[in-house]
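Supplementary material to the annual report.
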Amino acid sequence: MINRDSTVYDVVGIGNAIVDVLAKVGEGFISERKLAKGAMTLVEAVDAGKIYNDIIPEREVSGGSSANTVAGLSSFGVSCAFIGKVHDDELGQEFKRSIGASGVDFFTQPLNQGPSTGRSIVLVTPDAERSMFTYLGAAKKLSAKDIDEETIRSGKIIYLEGYLWDDFSAQRAMLKACKLAQKHHRKIAFSLSDKLCVERHRVEFIKLIKKYVDILFCNEDEIKALFQEEDLYKTLDLIKHDVEIAAITRNIQGSVIVNGRVKIFVEAEKVEDVVDTTGAGDLYAAGFLFGYTTDRSLGTCAMIGSIAAAEIITHYGARPEVSLRGFVRNQLRKYGKTI
Amino acid sequence: MINRDSTVYDVVGIGNAIVDVLAKVGEGFISERKLAKGAMTLVEAVDAGKIYNDIIPEREVSGGSSANTVAGLSSFGVSCAFIGKVHDDELGQEFKRSIGASGVDFFTQPLNQGPSTGRSIVLVTPDAERSMFTYLGAAKKLSAKDIDEETIRSGKIIYLEGYLWDDFSAQRAMLKACKLAQKHHRKIAFSLSDKLCVERHRVEFIKLIKKYVDILFCNEDEIKALFQEEDLYKTLDLIKHDVEIAAITRNIQGSVIVNGRVKIFVEAEKVEDVVDTTGAGDLYAAGFLFGYTTDRSLGTCAMIGSIAAAEIITHYGARPEVSLRGFVRNQLRKYGKTI
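Predicted assembly:
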């Protein structure tokens, strides 16, 4: 048994515990069914079942946004814990096994009744874009009781995903984590998760960010949705007042980091064959936070984030398939940097 | 006598040793005489005399671009030496006294015959812009003999100004310094000095930069002149291949730092009453290099540069009138940073 009192984590991730069911589909599959492309749509069990019946599942792999990030961080050698809810069913056991195998501590008590483990049907189109249809299931049952003060206190950074806000019980868990983190002077990192998710909760997200968040992760569409502002540069001048650091990913245009009066534009990694963009944002956050927890400059943090994202999009699934530390070390060497 | 063998400098500046003769003039003074505004024009002694006869000199203060930078660095507590040529006349003695008083070691043997100490008539118009008319005098006589291997070897960074390229003897001094610095694996910093200066020497400057320069300082006009390219963003993508770091000042738009795949945009310091912009670029370089020699992030280096420049433009003359270390510490505190 791990004595949690004495454990110190660099990052404690809190998020929806989800297993991804990956399937390759043609563009027609999405358009015929009028499905939302490139985003995450919440579905009920029955609708998930309908889509599931029409696909040939390629692979089932553990996912979940925050979970992907801490699994990525662990691959860099950063000590992490994860808090999220599964059911004690087959998928739940697979999730637990997988996150444990990646080196992340995971203690949250699983459900043994009620909804089954959450899953996300990830449809990957030939352009490597992913469209997700998520049945939250047990993940929705994360509650304030699952957030214990000792775990929050033992983390330097508490990492939260916007997706948690989709359920009232998980909202309360998130707020409890924020309050405890602030009480213990821990940094709070927050991912905006998804454009549709931002549109669902933008007013509350802005309040949450102003009150609690130190490090914000999002992409260009998400920050534009947050401020209902189409000009990216204007959003940068808005967010600089609200958080210490905002890291905004911009696809092939790289990323931009806002840190008060400083804006850092970093080029994207070139990737020859993009297979599946699932988890690109999650792994960018992992690389960035690896740099941050090891006191790298923000420009280097962003470069590491881009390299980690580049690894994840060359294969199916949102968990790294190589040691990110080694992978990033090799890539950075090309730019004359060492880690 | 100082034993130079055992002295280690953070920065060794090499440049034209110049005394600035400051005068306030109206816009008409510049336009009537068809003088170049906002730049540095080289003049012969006789032309300098003509302008001098028409002005009421406000102050005579030691100047020279590199000399201003090392004087600024010294005000941060950074150990510096300066190499440049004066005549052993009254102005030359004033230059020596002034740079010594600022804490900079200055050993270059003065002339005791030939041209008198160089001077620059600095006309400050009501918009605080400065137009300079420089008689190089003794400064032109800087020669390869004045560059000794031991001084170059003892500096971590060798700082050179583009103005040196205006004379063949000083060119050879500069090339000797570059070769010695490269031999001893010292960093070479280079300031493009002035738009007209870049236009005079752009092809040679590009060669010099590619071959020797690690850290380039310039303003927006200068880098555009260097590449004969009006789009600033295109110049950034050109210079990134040639130097490790380029720091480009942009007036009230702040500055941008190019470091390989990373571009860092930093806001300018707000200054209420701009009196005289002489030395703004020189002091930006001083602040930046103070940050660099003390291992700050490039964004912080640029912020320190901007703050140092903000100090210098609130008064006449290009040498700091307060301790820059203290001044910058107070300003940075507002942004939650400490030095």
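The two ends of chain A are 32 Å apart (CA to CA).
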